[in-house]
Design a protein that fits this description.
single chain, about 110 residues, alpha/beta, Rossmann fold, 4-stranded parallel sheet, about 30% helix
């Protein structure tokens, strides 16, 4: 649970910080995160809700746990966001496609940025 909250909080801090790209050091190494990413994909359910609360609409998101593809309260907020599969079975080909090509991927469940 703390990993999820930390990941969402880290993403929020990165998105709200000032005018330069940031290098974030994490378990897998270092990732450069642009200050104002225009196209974001999110690979966790709680991350989807966190992004939406911050006013960021992802171009792709993990499917909600017991909805197809997203919870009813998220559908109007997600607009044209593409379902990328479940958290445990993300479709990487879809993530890499032109339709969802993103400035930054965030995977909070395992605590790893891709």
């Amino acid at each position: 649970m703390l990993k999820h909250l930390f990941s969402a909080g880290l993403l929020a801090v990165l998105m709200l910080s000032s005018a330069h790209a940031r290098e974030v050091t994490h378990a897998m190494g270092t990732t450069e995160v642009p200050d104002h990413p225009q196209r974001v994909v999110i690979l966790t359910n709680e991350g989807t809700e966190a992004l939406l609360h911050l006013g960021v609409v992802p171009v792709g998101a993990a499917q909600s746990w017991d909805a197809d593809p997203f919870y009813a309260h998220l559908v109007p907020l997600l607009g044209d966001a593409v379902s990328l599969g479940t958290e445990t079975a993300i479709n990487l080909e879809l993530v890499a496609s032109a339709r969802t090509r993103s400035d930054h991927w965030h995977q909070g469940a395992a605590g790893k940025d891709l």
